[in-house]
Amino acid sequence: MKKSRPGHLVKAIVPREETERVAVRLAEETGTLGVRATPATHRFVADRTRARTTVEIDGEDHELAVKIARTDDGTVFDVSAEFDDASRVAAATGRPIRVIMRRAEERVRAEHADA
Fold first, then answer.
1. Are 38 and 31 in contact (CB under 8 A)?
2. Does the pTM of the predicted model rise above 0.70?
3. In this structure, are residues 89 and 64 in contact, taking their beta carbons and an 8 Å threshold?
4. DSSP state, 94?
5. Do both 8 and 57 map to the same domain?
6. Where residue 107 sits, what CATH number does that domain have?
7. Could you tell me if 9 and 32 lie in one domain?
8. pLDDT tens digit string along 46-100?
């Protein structure tokens, strides 16, 4: 930044009607003398659905919620297991949360591969 001072970029996504309030708060909290607001020209919002799936670990079934994101033509492009459910199953099984999440997500992707 100016005179070789360190600089930081802070980005916040807020509703248009909250822009001024957030800009003032940023200035109060950081001491900045300016905040640049850039309106979004387009925002893609995926079609999202929630589903439940079951993963089997050591012969025992565990149910988890997942979010499924689709394009406009229905193609699944993302599956995300609910962290709280994965955490519960991980605690019950002694497995890492990321392993539980990956198993649930892979199962749902496989179920929707032909959809």
1. no
2. no
3. yes
4. T
5. no
6. 3.10.20.300
7. yes
8. 889 999 999 999 999 999 999 999 988 888 889 999 999 999 999 999 999 999 9
